[in-house]
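Honest question from a wet-lab person: if I give you the sequences of every part of a complex, can you actually get the arrangement of the whole thing, not just the pieces? Trying it with mine:
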Amino acid sequence: MDRARITHIEETVTERGEQLIFPKQRILEGASSARWLRHNYQYYYEIFNARQLLAFNFLIEAIQEIPEEEYQNAFITVFSNSLEYNNMMTPYNYPHRKLHHLFNYHAMPLTTTPVENAVWGVGSKGAGTFTNCYRRYVRAKQYCRKPFDKYKGLGGAVQTVVTKQERISANLVSSFEELSETPRGAFLLCGGSAHLPSIPEHSVDFVITDPPYFDSIHYSELSNFFYVWLSCLIDHQYFAAKRVPTEQEAIVNKGMDKGEEDYQELLSSVFKESGRALKNDGKLIFTFHHTKWRAWWTMLTAIIESGFRVVDFFPVMSEYKVNPHIRNKQSLDMDLVLVCQKRGKPFESLSLPPEEVLKRAFDDLSSTVSENNDNKLFLYFMGELLRTASSIQDNEKVNYSWFAEALTHFDAFLANIDRSFPTRYEIPHIQQLRLLDADTLENSGYP
Ligand SMILES: C[S@@+](CC[C@H](N)C(=O)[O-])C[C@H]1O[C@@H](n2cnc3c(N)ncnc32)[C@H](O)[C@@H]1O
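Yes, you can. This is the full assembly:
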């Protein structure tokens, strides 16, 4: 019976082919999509079966009949969310007995035993059904009207605290000048941040940003999965391109021929543009984390090249505490917030060789480091290292060997800690240090 229905659906999809709405774009080649391409998936629509494509078309027909643009867009958002749960790459999460959405691992996984949802669900059952995505959308909107935080109280019970008189909303304006006249104004621009002519020079106090983390997540590749559908449904210049534009994307993605140097250059251009927009005493603030030393090095180079230096930093819990990347591997569960200032004003130079500074830092540690705190210690150490290294004068240059040597000292320190009894440890206070004179940024075989 089911097989007969599936055959009927497949025939219907073949017959109605041209009238049906689904993306016809080829899958973009990249480090993440390589898996799909190797298994001969060539088009984005091939990630869905005929039953899903037909079900989507019933939904799309209904959505397109909604007269008010705002509501139509809301339902398009819901539809877009449901795509990641209704495709033939969704794995089953055995411990939680439910389906996982496609991007659980922030990658494009190849799932050989996928689970198929009923697209709009059966009652309220099913993870990521259209009906449940709609409920999630409503909850998100309610949250915007009445935002709250949750925390565990003394007895372990979860407490909810509503942020009084706060709401997440903005009045969109169409020029920078309008911003100052508009309460809760927001000027929304969509595109690369290396060129922002609509923002005047020396006009902003803070640039707060969240750049891509080197090679960690291949944003454009992943977002194409949604973009190709949205470009079928939304008549707007932002969806006019065939796929997400990648030229301006600051990322290390070998599959897209984007290397470390490209990443650093784009990042530097974005930071330079931030410097142009910032007032002289303004701050550039962003988060970063990575396990690779080269990633931090590239960030340091971008900071210095764009005319900034790190003046402060602090670690924060990263957004995805239960991210499978983090739970099972040696990656960081915290991000480092870096606060940068323009190099324009005179600042103090550094005075110690790195070995000496690191020795002092280690001496400062009161006792052993419990394993749970290694990440935090690493971030404090990295923060100090970046602050120190970016405080060079214009006639000095820092090289990768120096940077890697400092990190080797740190690794050796961690390796030699006596962990036989857990003790609270103090974060070292690292003195400023003089950088080795060297004018090459060679890769000397360090990670
Ligand atoms: C770490 S994510 C930021 C995520 C964001 N904070 C959020 O919660 O959705 C980095 C973002 O930077 C974007 N990006 C990459 N290169 C860019 C560029 N040159 N200009 C502006 N944005 C860029 C990526 O597309 C990605 O969306």
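Two things worth pointing out. The first helix runs from residue 2 to 16. Residues 2-145 form one domain.
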